[in-house]
Amino acid sequence: MVVNFRQLTYFLAVAQTGQITAAAQQLHIAQPPLSYQIKQLETELGVTLFNRSVNGVTLTPAGQLLQDYAQQLLDLRAQADSQVKALGQGLAGTLAVGMVSSSIGATPNAKLQTLTRHYPKLQIRLVEDNTYGLLDQLRKRLIDVAIVRTPFSAPDLASKSLASEPMVAVVPRKYDHFQTATLRVEDVAQVPLIIYRRFTHIFDQTFAEKDLTPFIACTCDDARTAVQWADARMGVALVPRSVADQLSGVQTTIYPINFRAWRTTLQVVWPANREPSPLVQRFIDSY
């Protein structure tokens, strides 16, 4: 048995108008082809769907049952067509987005908020990890796109740079003996430091080049944790400016560090070897 959607559409038109001629006019087809399709539908189903008379047609019990199912099937098809088309156009679907903890303050931004308002069926699944963990998940296709922080090396990924910002020191009053508005590397080397592990290599390299041996009081995997520990007077946190601005409390002071090599940039990254889906492209365009 092969029943197609066109036959069901024709069947419903006849059922609703009660006349073959009126249904044919509504469908913009000739009457003979419509009559043939209805007869074919009855043959394939093995039942009579209409009682025919000179005044028109009425549904048989089998026709009444089919009318409900036919309408459900056509509604379901329309819904499926709409959702698949919406997904293909980037209007709906689920987007897996990787995000580093130090992207706080940069996301969600106003454009992304506008995007989700315009496309309420867009779902975002956040995956939080460090930069290298997210790059690995991108390569394994476990996520679609990621917001990560430089420095890193990933020639197989395409990228779009967002904000570039300096590293700052989040200094609790306990250690705030500085007399200048900005600090040098030599200044921060004099106090216990709380290091966001993502930048350990950069800090170690700089301190070694300057022959400095600061005391690293704590190393953590989350920039937010570094600021929280500084607020608790456990040491001086070295974090990107945006993280400090978002999270530092009234018991701490933010000092910019005057050292160009300690600048860092947030980037949106995605696989370079495949075209971004419409959904991924909309996300990229929101930054």
From TrEMBL:
Keyword DNA-binding: yes
Record keywords, A-Z: DNA-binding, Transcription, Transcription regulation
Domain of life according to the entry: Bacteria
Ribonucleoprotein recorded as keyword: no
Domain HTH lysR-type: 3-60
GO CC terms of this entry: protein-DNA complex
Stated family: Belongs to the LysR transcriptional regulatory family.
PANTHER family documented for this protein: HCA OPERON TRANSCRIPTIONAL ACTIVATOR HCAR, TRANSCRIPTIONAL DUAL REGULATOR HCAR-RELATED
Protein name as catalogued: Fhu operon transcription regulator
Organism: Levilactobacillus paucivorans
